[in-house]
Amino acid sequence: MLALLLAALSGLCMALQGSLNTALSKAVGLLEGTFIVHLVGSLFGAVLLLCGLGQGSLAHFRDAPWYTYLGGVLSVAIVYLVAASISKVGVASATTAIIVGQVVTAAAVDYFGWFGLEPLPFSIWKGLGILLMAGGAWLLLSR
Question: What are the domain boundaries of the chain?
Fold first, then answer.
């Protein structure tokens, strides 16, 4: 239950982050705002590590498969695309589309077991849940 509450809290943070990133991008530019967001995030992460809050070791960075570092590229794309979409369609509509995209992609990752994850079966119930979510998104996004 705690994991689901933490996940919900991350969703709250994502919606706020998208709004803040959009406001910053309007002031300085979209790519410039994306850069600033990652710079501030990197500095904050460094402070947390210097405070001893890390649980691993940066010395093991070579142990990770090469493709895991693409998360940094995806992070830049996410911040850029979220800020671009929110400024055009608003927070609720953009967030709804983001969540549908996340769930569909997550179901594929689970099913195929990509990136070394354990494959999880796809059921009619998961498919129905995705269809209902997409239908709800369509209702929310329709004017």
Answer: 14-46+65-89, 90-143
